TrEMBL record:
Belongs to the YggT family. Pfam families: CCB3_YggT. GO terms for cellular component: membrane. Keywords: Membrane, Transmembrane, Transmembrane helix. This is YggT family protein. Coiled coil: none annotated. InterPro entries: CCB3/YggT. It comes from Buttiauxella izardii. The chain crosses the membrane at residues 6-25, 66-87, 93-115, 148-169. It comes from the Bacteria.
Amino acid sequence: MLTLTFLVKTLIELYVMVLLIRIWMQWSRCDFYNPFAQFIVKITQPIVGPLRRIIPSIGPIDTSSLLVAFILTTLKYPILLLIQIGALSLDPMNLLVGLLSLLKSAGTLVFWVIIIRSLMSWISQGRSPIEYVLMQLTEPMMAPIRRVIPAMGGIDFSAMVVILILYALNYLGMDLFPGLWYLL
């Protein structure tokens, strides 16, 4: 049962991350002709495409992708509970758990995108299409920090400041929802 639990949880979390990247790419107006952006669109289109005909976007936010991500995070723990103990719990508290799980997934996604962008900046020097999308995603967060704390000695500290802010928000989540935040 642990293997099945791990697989189901990992698949749901990965697909939620891909949906969140799609939302984030639309919000930051990424180049959707980029091969990486095309991959994200193609992997999410079978589920999001039909919903986009029914649920319109609200400004730069892809609401249909956000709805699918929220539904997946809301159903994740009842499905895992069903796998582990064979009981299905349809509690209204699952909506709060789904919302908190979605927020935590978004923070985790921002963390890893910044880490990957920082590592790729040492290796590829801007020639990778993936790095171009990562730059378009993270630049709106890092540019204001760069105006306050400029690069010193060729080292850009804006990624470190954003990661410290994410850690602070994670600890805030632990303080506000002490037992629940660890389970997400």
